[in-house]
Write a structure and sequence with these properties.
Bound molecules: ligand TLP
CATH architecture of the largest domain: 3-Layer(aba) Sandwich
CATH superfamily of the largest domain: Type I PLP-dependent aspartate aminotransferase-like (Major domain)
CATH class of the largest domain: Alpha Beta
Largest sheet: 7 strands, mixed
Mean pLDDT: 97
Distance between the termini: 34 Å
Radius of gyration: 21 Å
Number of domains: 2
């Protein structure tokens, strides 16, 4: 549970991964009908995979342990060792997935700069794709991210995804989308997730972030891609048995928890607007699109993340004076106001 620090309620803005399962999820988990999923005999997992494929508008889906595993499957199923893949310079796949694409997929990772909206410039992608040449590896995969974590929760529109995927397809590349927070993008744009992922070949999305399920992610694509991914998942040790226990929470996540993401987005805007009023903080409230706020704290505060942590408000450091806040279901509008008060107090005392 959230707990207290120095008698104050802990307000945890480190990530939306900290969200706890709802009572409805726990009930669904308790009651879940289960079987051995390696034999495809877990009815709850089968139901979750059918639901995921339907909401993503893809032929098939595979339940995995994490976003990291789903993204790795995106590489393993869409490439061969020795291929080159194009990834944004700020991509989660590049920064935070332990280099799995290279280590386990044997691919070369080539980066193209992400703009602050999480996009890759079509001209940059175009010139990074290798032509046929005896000296070159084959460029076979383009990876996108929506919403974009390091770009402050930025949303890629369906039009942009279509344009950049069209370019990749024309040059013979497949496209994988890290859609860990694709429902945040859908809610922010007021469209169905299906529309945002239609142009890509494979997509991963997470159940255990803003949607509050305790575990899990889905890898979606054609039947053939999902079958290949299933085999890779087994090799990686991700063939789970009576995992319907956790899939049950995932079904509740998809069916019941999407619309409320709008509250997290409103809280992120509220937080950014409040922070902009505190002297010395650098933040752009007008750029907040979903539930992530990147900001910089004033030098004089010293080690902001540690000091505000001692006052019960938790953030993740992005290095230097850069910090990330992620709003989530465990943090209410009142908690945001309280967090801002505590920050204000800290800054005043640092004078
Ligand atoms: N991101 C986590 C940490 O790894 C930083 C977070 O707190 O934001 N894609 C994106 C865009 C992600 O943000 C994450 C998790 C993943 C993939 C990986 O998901 P998991 O943690 O389930 O492996």
């Amino acid at each position: 549970m959230s707990g207290k620090v120095a008698g104050m309620k802990v307000i945890d803005l480190r990530s939306d991964t900290i969200t706890l399962p709802t009572d409805e999820m726990r009930r669904a988990m308790y009651e879940a009908e289960v079987g051995d999923d390696v034999h495809r005999e877990d009815p709850t997992i089968n139901r979750l995979e059918e639901l995921a494929a339907r909401v993503m508008g893809k032929e098939s889906a595979l339940f995995t342990t994490s976003g990291t595993m789903s993204n790795l499957l995106g590489v393993l199923t869409n490439t061969r060792p020795g291929d080159e893949i194009i990834v944004g310079s700020e991509a989660h796949m590049l920064w935070y997935e332990v280099g799995g694409a290279s280590t386990l997929g044997g691919v070369i990772i080539r980066t193209v700069p992400n703009d602050e909206g999480g996009r890759l410039a079509p001209a940059d992608v175009e010139k990074t794709i290798r032509p046929e040449n005896i000296h070159f590896p084959r460029t076979t995969l383009l990876c996108l991210e929506n919403t974009h974590n390091r770009c402050g929760g930025a949303v890629l529109t369906g039009e942009y995804t279509e344009e950049i995927s069209g370019l990749a397809h024309k040059r013979g590349l497949l496209v994988h989308l890290d859609g860990a927070r694709i429902f945040n993008a859908a809610v922010a744009l007021g469209v169905r997730a299906e529309e945002l992922v239609a142009p890509v070949d494979t997509v991963s999305f997470c159940l255990s972030k803003g949607l509050s399920a305790p575990v899990g992610s889905l890898f979606c694509g054609t039947v053939e891609a999902a079958e290949r991914a299933r085999k890779w998942r087994k090799m990686l040790g991700g063939g789970m048995r009576q995992a319907g226990i956790i899939a049950a929470a995932g079904i509740v996540a998809i069916e019941k928890m999407v619309d409320r993401l709008a509250e997290d987005h409103a809280n992120a805007k509220r937080f950014a607007a409040g922070l902009a009023q505190i002297p010395g903080f650098s933040v752009s409230p007008e750029k907040v699109q979903t539930n992530i706020v990147n900001f910089e704290f004033p030098q004089k505060v010293g080690d902001f993340v540690v000091k505000i942590g001692e006052r019960g408000v938790k953030f993740l450091s992005r290095g230097g004076r850069s910090v990330r806040a992620v709003t989530n279901r465990m943090v209410s509008a009142e908690d945001i106001e309280e967090a801002l008060k505590r920050i204000n107090r800290l800054v005043k005392e640092a004078r």
